[in-house]
Structure formats: structure tokens, C-alpha cells
Amino acid sequence: MVWDPALETAFHPKVVAMVGVSSSAQRGTRGFGGVSFINSYEQLGFQGHIYPVNPKATEIMGRKAYPNVTSIPEHVDLVVVSVPAQTLPDVLEDCIAANAKNIHVFTAGFEETGEEEGRVLGRRVREIALRGGLRIIGPNCMGLYVPEAGIGSFDRLPKESGPVAFISQSGGHCNWYSHYAPNYGIHFSKVISFGNAYVLDSTDYLEYLAIDPETRIICMYLEGIKDGAKLLRQVRQINRVKPVILWKAGLTESGARAVASHTGSLAGQEAIWHAFFAQTGAVPAFSLEEMAEIAMTFLYVKPPRGKRVTVIGLGGGSSVASADVCAREGLEMPTLTAKTQAELKKFISLAGSSIKNPLDTGLVFRDVSMLEREIELVAADPLIDILIVRPHLDMARFAGPDQVNHLVNYLCDFSRHNAHDKPLVITFHSFANDPWEAELRAKLQVELPQKGIPVYESLTGASRALARFYEYHRFQRELSAGKE
């Protein structure tokens, strides 16, 4: 279908009907279905009108209740439906009569059950939607989370907006990612859980996000797809302007079976999706953690000139392993030039250290001025494109809070303004039971991401995200040069 601008009111509604809220629901209590949606809207500060719909109640959660959508005294921009599956057709007929076309169907119990009764009911729902011109989000989904509009589907969602959108066939993934991603400095323009996709599919939401001025990066979790050729064309085009980070589930036999029982979708073959990524340049992810680290990279890292990396920090065995990690994820780790090594030798003892790359120079983290000098020299090396800094765990113990603050300020300044225009990122995995690390952990894992400085949980995560970031830009350069 062609994107219908009228659906925009679903993302920024002024009047919302909540159909199926329990008649016994009380303000301030937690619940499921309609109760959770009202709680989420209130917590996010929704400024419009919410109308509970239940024919057995006159008041729900401090609001006047209505027997049906047609009795609501205002035109309804969005209807959120959480009724038993068998009663959904009647609710949709009521929405048609009220000329309320934007419908989020939370209700489940259709093809995903694997039962014939569910399949028959699903066909009936689709027929009603088609006849009435209903724009159904779902069924079997958590719907929309739009911080700017104050609408959401989950408890305690972040209120801050941002430039990242997330389209997901899974409502649970929407919930987890919406709460997890802000730890990486990621905030959302739109989050869309679309479930069984009776009317609107992922390609329809892509059409919207492609022109949405609030969205700069698009993340996707897909189980099945109705029109693969259309998705390929869309992603190939959109990806040139807005990076598309895609986790395609159900590529294995076991995963395909799980997909069928979750949203009733047909999963694709692995070889087909490998070709999809090769032709579109979309960025693959294989977990929400990976997706968050990759999205953070696109938000805050400067595109590197190449994929040659240096790792600063570490110690003995970790130093040896880091070269393997980077190479395995697609990065290169060249030996530093003789000139750079000679300069490093002037203030770093070779006893217990290595300055070839990776740099096993943990002792410099006890004196930030030495670390600054090391970073500046390595950044000037013509063989290096990207710097990964791994702060030593003993830093907080031996350097003290003043040095930690100095380090944070320096890393922020260097990452944004270094003369060599080379990206610098941090990896830091701490031991939560070490009291000496509390200050360092708070500074690196909380403060830096909030300032737009990437911090990764592991060297593997950093290497993987940086390699895919580089490959995205390489693909776009070749596409622009006509070397497809």
C-alpha cells in the first residue's frame, strides 16, 4: 500500500479510545492490557483526551467510561483495543460506524495459535478492516511508543525523544529495547510493534519513517515479510540517507518454528537474507544488544577513513587476545610505525609493556597526562584510523577521583575535536563487586554515553559495531561511485 498521511494522527493523537479496560481498574494500580496503556500514557504526560470504553462501567480510573466508540463525544484519532479475540469483529464494526480508522489491536488469538478457529477469525478481521478502510496496527502487538506525543505501551518508559526509530514484530523486544537503549545514549522518535501485520506491514512503516524528519536511524526486528522485493527496494533506497539496522529472526530451522508460533509469519531462508544484506547495504544485527551498540556507533562515531584500529590499555593475555578479536570481527590491527614507537619509548618502559599494537600500557592509566600523550602520538600515526581505549581497572584505586574526572573530560574533548579527525571509543567491563571501581564505572558507563561518547561493554562488541559501521560507509561510497 501507499503510505496514508492520515495515519500520522495515530502517532500524534489528541483523542484516544481505550477499548476493553477492566471495569474494576483503579488509578495507580498496575495491570495488563487497557490498564497498562492508560498508565503508560499518564506517565509519559499525554496531553490529549483518553476515553475508556466498557459497556459495564460508568467510570474507570477516574474517567467517565463509554459503552462504545460511537458514543464518545469527540472524533477519535486512535483506538487501542484489548478485548477477547472473539469480540474484536464487533469492536471494529463500531469503529467503522464512528469513522475511527486508526486502530491498535493489542488482542491476540489468531493465526499464531496454530488453530483453525484462530485462522478463520483472522480472515474475518481482515475482511472487516478492508471493507471499512481501517488502518490496523497489529493484531497481537504492543503498538506505538512516541515520547514526543506522550503515548506508549509499557511501564516507566523514558520521556526523552531522539532520532532513532525501531520497527519490531515483537512487542517484548520493543519493551526491552526501549528501556535498554538509553543506557547507550539512544532515545527514540518512534517505536512500532506491529505483530501479525494484518493491514500495515514493516514496509508501510518504512515509508513513513523514510520521510519522518524526527528519524535519522532506523532499527528493525523482523520475523516474516509479505513483500520481500518491496522491502529490498525500500531498504536499498532509504539506507543511503538513513542507516537501516536489521535483525532478521527465524533464519535457522528452530527459529523458523518459533516465528510461526509467535506471529504466524513465514521466516525466510538464510541464503536469501545474506543476499538481501549484500544488495541493500543494510547493517545486520543478531541481538538487541548488538543493535544498541551499532545504533550508538552511528549516532556518535565519526566515519573512519579505514578499518585499521589500535587498542590502548589492557594487560598481558588480554592484549594478545584483542588482536584476534578485532581481526575476527573484520578490523585490521597494524603495527605502529617505528617513529611512533620511538616516541612512546621516551616515557613508557618496555618492561611489562608492549607498544607495537595492541598497546599493553596499563600503567599510564595511573597518570592521565601520560595517557593523553600516548593517545596523541597514536592518533598521529598514519597507519591508524580508529582508537579503542580500554581504561585499566586499577585506575580509580591508584589515580584517584580527580584523575578520573580529568580522564572523562579529556576523552570527551578528544573524541569531538582531535586534530587528526579520528574516532575514539571506550570499552569498559567492570567487576560490580569491586568498590574501588564505583567512581570509574559511574563516569564511564553513565556519564560518557550521556555526553555522546560511545562506551561498549566489551572489545568484541566495539569491534563488531565499528566493523559494520565502516562497511556501511564503504558500501555507500561504492554505490555512489557506481561500483555496485
Can you offer a commentary on this structure?
The chain is an alpha/beta fold. Strand 17 (424-427), helix 16 and strand 18 form a beta-alpha-beta unit. The chain has 17 helices and 18 strands. It has a 6-stranded mixed β-sheet with strand order 8-10-9-11-12-13, sandwiched between helices. A 5-stranded parallel β-sheet has the order 2-1-5-6-7, sandwiched between helices.
Summarize the structure.
The chain is built from 17 helices and 18 strands. With 484 residues, the protein is of the alpha/beta class. The chain is elongated and about 80 Å long.
Mean pLDDT: 89
List segments where confidence is low: pLDDT < 50 over at least 5 consecutive residues. Answer: none
Rg measurement, Å? 26 Å
Distance between the termini: 29 Å
Task: Specify the structural class.
Answer: alpha/beta
Main β-sheet, in a few words? 6 strands, mixed
Secondary structure: number of strands: 18
Q: In percent terms, what proportion of residues is strand? A: 15-25%
- Overall form: elongated
Helix content: 40-55%
Give the spatial strand order of the biggest sheet: 8-10-9-11-12-13
Number of helices: 17
